[in-house]
Amino acid sequence: MVQRFDVGTRLSEMAVHNGVCYLAGQVAGDATQDIAGQTRQVLAAIDALLARAGTDKGKLLMCQIVLPDLADFPAMNAVWEAWLPAGHAPPRATISAKLAKPEWKVEMIVTAAL
Questions:
Q1: CA dist 96 to 46, 65, 69, 99, Å?
Q2: How confident is the model at residue 10, as a pLDDT?
Q3: pTM
Q4: Cβ of 42: how many Cβ atoms within 10 Å?
Q5: Going edge to edge, which strands form the sheet with 20-23?
Q6: 3 state SS of 2
Q7: C-beta separation of 61 from 42 below 8 A
Q8: Minimal CA–CA distance to 34: which of 66, 81, 79?
Q9: How far apart are CA 92 and CA 64, in angstroms?
Q10: Cα-Cα-Cα-Cα dihedral sign, residues 48, 31, 77, 100
């Protein structure tokens, strides 16, 4: 059985299947903030969605990060590393690409075990 959360016409924010939680790309709600502020917002959204599924950031299986500007990489990493539980760093990829809105500075896509 596939369980979907916050289903819209284009996407669901999250799907759970066979013990794995898949999140849609998460972006900042307040895109006026700098990269650190937007990263904190994205990570808070990830925390909230994972909690709804009954899991948490200690069970991340994979993270994909999209940054339009790789100059933001060090500041994003500082927030990421402060958020991540020690010893639980998942496999991760960071790419540079344009996002759907030019004011967005980071998007993260994660999967986690339940």
A1: 20, 8, 6, 9
A2: 96
A3: 0.97
A4: 26
A5: 3-7, 12-17, 20-23, 107-113, 60-67, 92-96
A6: coil
A7: no
A8: 79
A9: 6
A10: positive
**pLDDT attached to residue 8:** 97
> Which segments of the chain does DSSP mark as H helices, in order?
35-53, 73-83
User: Domain boundaries in the chain?
Assistant: 3-113
What pLDDT does residue 26 have?
A: 98
Closest CA to 50 of 23, 26, 29: 23
- 77-94 average pLDDT score: 98
- DSSP β-ladder status, 92-96 and 60-67: parallel
Q: Which CATH class is domain 3-113?
A: alpha beta
Tell me phi and psi for residue 3, to 5 degrees: -110, 125
DSSP class of residue 91 equals P
